[in-house]
Amino acid sequence: MIDMMKAMQAFVAVVDKGNFVSAAEMLNTSTAAMSRQISGLESHLGARLLHRTTRRLSLTDAGQEFYSRSQSILSDLAEAESIVGQQVMQPKGTLRISAPLSYGVHELARLLTGFRQRYPELQLDIDLSDRVVDLANEGIDVALRISRALSSQLIARKLLDIPMIMCASPAYLKQHGYPQTPEDLTEHDILNYSYLATGDNWSFINAEGEEVHIRVQPKVHATNGDVLKTLALADGGIIIQPDFIVEQEIANGTLTALLPEWTMGTFSLYAVYLSRKHLSAKVRAFIDYMAEHARE
Question: Among the CATH numbers 2.40.50.100, 3.40.50.720, 1.10.3210.10, 3.40.190.290, which is that of 164-267?
Answer without folding.
Answer: 3.40.190.290
